[in-house]
Design brief:
The chain has about 240 residues and is an alpha+beta fold. It has a single domain, classed as Ribosomal Protein S5, domain 2 (2-Layer Sandwich). Helices cover about 30% and strands about 30% of the residues. It has six helices and ten strands; from the N terminus they run αββββαβαββαβββαα. The strands form two sheets. Strands 1-2-3-5-4 form a five-stranded mixed sheet. A hairpin with a 2-residue loop joins strand 6 and strand 7. Helix 2 packs across helix 3.
Amino acid sequence: MSELTLIDENGKRSDNRGIDDLRQIKITVGVVKNADGSAFIEFGKNKIIVAVYGPREVHPKHMALPDRCVLRCRYHMSPFSTDTRKNPAPSRREVEISKVIRESLEPSLILSDYPRAVIDVFVEVLQADGGSRCAGIAAASVALADAGINMRDLVSACASGRLGDKIVLDINDLEDKEGDADMPVAYLPNTEQITLLQLDGKLSSSQFNECLNKAIDGCKLVYEIQKEALMKKYFGNETEVKEEV
Ligand code: ADP
């Protein structure tokens, strides 16, 4: 598909957004009764539930580490999450995304506080529409906070990409498939650390910088929504907290 179809003459994208617009994001905290922490994120048409269990005893025991907690992450897409039925068995892509989610979250957590234990993070994609790893990371970080895990910062995540000569924020499934580049980024907004940076497609060095800066700006917007969701669960609403402070 040409750039003309992905961005029309008025600068509007396939879902009517401008090039710097995020999709609608809603995060609900504490949605899984049996989990220690959980979150449900709607990121555009992505619908993802994350459940966190732990810190708890490691099984098998030989996996335990004497000086820190083990973080295990599983990203899984349900068979009905995509336009054609997805095989429920873990695919190579899901194994890779599970690994990058773990690596995105690990730097935010103070794992040395829980030696010989494990924390399990289950990211279940109920509906996917592009950018599901970023949405999964953002929800997982909120679920870890909900579980009371000691952390340095929340991890925020957002992708940017290239459609022809335009760098755009938060690419959807169609843009992912038909566009020219996709750059998912995870970011710790307070320590300003990047914990995930992937790139599928080609960018010049100036496009690379523009894309990365745009994704970081997106992460900062997602961070506000993550904080608000936690405030809502723990303090009723954000305004009340601001008044109390
Ligand atoms: P992300 O969801 O993080 O952007 P990808 O770039 O690999 O990850 O995938 C982009 C989108 O492609 C997904 O969000 C999903 O909508 C779609 N997709 C991924 N895997 C499948 C699959 N097995 N069948 C159909 N669609 C898929």
